[in-house]
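User: My collaborator and I are trying to settle a disagreement about how two of our proteins should look. Neither of us wants to argue from intuition anymore, so we agreed to look at predicted structures for both before our next call. Could you fold the first one, then the second, and keep them clearly separated?

Assistant: That sounds like a sensible way to settle it. I'll keep them separate. The first protein:
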Amino acid sequence: MIKKIIYIFLFIMITISGGWLGFNVYNLMALNKEKSTSSLELKLSGNSFVEVTINGKYTDDGGVAYYNGKEYPLKPEGNIDFSVPGTYLVKYTADIDSDLNHSIYRTVKVVDKNVPIITLKGKQEMSLYVGEKYKEPGFTVTDDSGVDLTSHVVITGEVNSKKVGTYKLVYSVKDDSGNEAKATRKVIIKNRPVVTNIVATKVTAKEKGDVAEKKVDLNATSNSTVSMSYTSNGIHLEGYVKNGSGEYSIKVCKSSECTTTAMKTKDKYYYSGDIKLSSLANGTYKVKVVDKKEMDLVNKLDYGERLNRAKVGDKLVTFSYDNDVMTFKVEDHKYEYDIVIDPGHGGIG
């Protein structure tokens, strides 16, 4: 009986002692872990929030972990697409101990504050005559995001080609960040000229004479000479092309041999320039005005306002106007009275 009591007592004591021992071992481990964790400090270098312009440059400042008196560099994790606006989180951790998996974060915001760029094709200021249809030359749009915004452009305003006036077209577009760009084109509608002044040289050997004025209905012909005069080695021409493109040249041909001279554009439908005749070989020449196609050069000026015959350099040049189509003949100049046999405007010898 006594032995039984002793065994019971010992069992109780061992149980109590073991429970106390287990409790203390558990708490010691927990305290040790708490102590280890509390001595870990993570710190970012630079700001925890960074704003970067789209497609801009960004340098990660990194960070440091302090643990038990030592420093450990923080490793960043996470991808940032600097071509796409948005908010990105970068996670930083330290490679110290597998039990120490604390982390810290930095916020990086990619922003787009630049407006798109609208580039107008054609001219920013265009001129048309009444009745000519306005055709939109087009435009392109570039944006930092790389997104093609051309189809998102809104055009406000309209052009009434039947009414004289100045019209404004406004082109606007917004990118995904709300940045708005605008561009403006001015379109001027004006009356087509019907009356023009013709300046010509009268018949004298070496002097310019009277100034003649003539009304020409430019709508009645595909092209017309509106002014002509002699120069020291040829003639000066000014002309008009109905519905012309704005780029003109004069072509003179003897059979298949041709010489082309580019003209200056005075207005979209008017040209001017000098044609050199003194170096041409003898023969008869046809004259063409070249625009989108070749056309016979028409001259509807009155007889007194047309050039007829003159000495040009060492050549005698005689003009003809069959059915108002201009041609000319080049010959050697032999006698001074050659000019007055068929009086014209007199050249410059």
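The second protein, kept apart from the first:
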Amino acid sequence: MKNKGLIIALLALAVLVAGYFVWQGGANDEVSNKEVIKIGVIVPLSGESAFWGQNIKDGIELAKDKINKNGGIKGRQIITIYEDTKGEPKTATNAVNKLINTDDISYIIGDVISSNILAIAPIVEKNTVPLIGFGESAEITNAGDYIFRNWNSASSDAAITGKFAAENSKTIILLSRNDAFGLSAKTIFKKVVNGKLKIIDDIQFDTESNDFRSIISLIKNKSYDAIYFAGFHKEAMEFLSQYIEMGGQPVDIYGVSSWEEQTLIEFIEQNYPGTVYYGYPKPPDSTLAEVIEFRSLFKQTYGKSPEILNDNGYDAVMMYKKAIELVGSFEQEKVKDGLYLLDDFKGATGEFSIDDNGDVQKPFGLKRINSKGVKWIQ
């Protein structure tokens, strides 16, 4: 956690000192300006989470190309080095060690998997390398001074869904991934609904699960009017397909923000007789210049409209650019301090701020899916 007032005061002093040395030795600046900025990117580019990783990559590359074509950041071009984490903590750990010790990167973007971020956080902290990730687990809030994210914490997601469930359901079954994300989301959801909803069952499933039939057999004859499912969109698709096939009750189902995926949404609209709810960051102001530019550039480059995490990947690069400009330095510790100073940042995902824990602060809402389509209800 950082004191923003102290950071501002120290940076003001640093600017004065830097100004003196620039005046004393301007010739050296011409050499340093020819250097590059190496950003290491750790995302799943294969496996069940590759969809998110590729979307993040598309956004990152769009921002990188835009910046480089316009002269780079303070004259330096950006180079991105990608490592496929496959959604696995061990692979993510090996990737980060390679990026830091072999590739000599300055900053990191990734991962989208909470367990991976928590696994690599100690390495990032030890080496004082800033990291901007996208994981939801509430544990990431306290993962370290150099850990940031521009995706809302599970505390936002599960809290808004839990509040709605507590007001509209009476009995519920909890299903969650057995990992940092699933357990964090479920814990927050339970805390919100505690004493307001009767929990009929609380079941964890393996992260590699694609067969939920034994769980469905266990719960389908019990008395409940809602299900909370803290799992990824592919797991949700498998669960719902099997739940419908096995004659599960058409109860309200509460999901998570990663369910914002068109194939899953269309499946629910066309096949599930009940209603599904999930929290999601509210859409940005469509009149914001940065939003208009991003959407236009994305469509021009990729020939389609942006999807989940495209804009977050783009903004991660832009956040580093803004932080460097704020502190007037490429030094990792100073850039880290610059990230804490991002208040009312305007980007592809809209306007947001970074709090003293490195978490993004942006409006969060609730969406509903049924046979009539998708609708914001909060």
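Some points you might bring to the call about the second protein. The first helix runs from residue 4 to 24. The chain has two domains: 4-151+309-342, 155-282+364-376.
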